[in-house]
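Encode chain A's predicted structure.
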Amino acid sequence: MYQLGSKAYEQVNLETRVSQASPHQLIVLLFDGALQAIRLASLYLQKGNIAGKGTAISKAINIVDNGLKGCLDLEKGGEIAENLDRLYHYISQQLVLANLHNDKEKLQSCYDLLNNIAESWREIAK
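Encoded structure for chain A:
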């Protein structure tokens, strides 16, 4: 019962943060979601929960492909947007391979790449 209440609170908290976020903050939230999903996938992999790992990796891929990649404006963004597009594509491919081969090193590599970009986004806000 406590877990259900906790999940409901997390969902309301997330919905509130999203509804009050600026476009810049929304990107940060997408990074946070992808990073959290990759961390969760690593934990599931470590515990031998293959189904949980697959679900978490699928969530990370969805955020990268439909969230982060979907926010890119390739016409106005120029070379930076094109480079990010290629990097997001690479990360998605690596996540698929990490899922297929239960590869914790690939998961860590994807986490590190996304975290570096996320840190840059966080710095922009300052």
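The chain has one domain: 23-125.
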